Amino acid sequence: MQKIKTELPDCFILEPEVHGDERGFFLETWNKRTFDDLGLTMPFVQDNHSRSARGVLRGIHYQVVHPQGKLVRVTRGAVYDIAVDLRKQSPTFGKWTGVELSEENRRIFWVPPGFGHGFYVTSETADVQYKCTEYYMPGNDRSIRWNDPEIGIAWPLTGRDEPMLSNKDAAAKMLKDAEVFE
CB atoms < 10 A from the CB of 70, how many? Predict the structure, then answer.
């Protein structure tokens, strides 16, 4: 597995070794020894799977009390996946990085605890699967506006001005008003 740095020092893109032939392919998406060797030692407690249609934007989500690290991959379709540093004391506070994740490139994105996470679906549909380092706790769940100008994410909107949002994401706060990590 290859570890690729991003603009944010704590976020990584991972490219697994793919073994393929005329029958198909095989790859490891997580192996404790491999991740330990890469310096990515993390306890995972929950796996999630979402399916979304083209134009859906989910995020920017995070938990304040029990922050989740997320190991994100796409098994069907393609998304533009982002992470935003929400650690107030960090030199990269409010900065973001993004990567295309798809069933073709088979990349995996590590979003550490203390970061917000979101994605925008660029294919007809997309299945996003991710491992979490903490359990989902609805009372600690927070969202930041997808189009906050202070963050300035360059979303690759496909043929529309506004993405499809949940009610929660449509009502999300701007970074300046949001509860973040001290």
Answer: 23
**Catalytic site includes residue 49:** no
User: Domain tally for the chain?
Assistant: 1
Catalytic residue from among 61, 62, 80, 120:
61
Q: What's the CA gap between 26 and 141, in Å, rounded?
A: 35
Host domain of residue 172: 2-177
136 is catalytic: no
What is the chain's pLDDT, residue by residue, as a tens digit (182 residues)? 999 999 999 999 999 999 999 999 999 999 999 999 988 888 999 999 999 999 999 999 999 999 999 999 999 999 999 999 999 999 999 999 999 999 999 999 999 999 999 999 999 999 999 999 999 999 999 999 999 999 999 999 977 678 999 999 999 999 999 999 98
CATH number, domain containing residue 59: 2.60.120.10
106 and 73 in contact (C-beta within 8 Å)?
yes
Token pair, residue 177, equals 């008003």
Both tokens assigned to 120:
């925008």
In the beta sheet, which residues pair with residue 27? 18
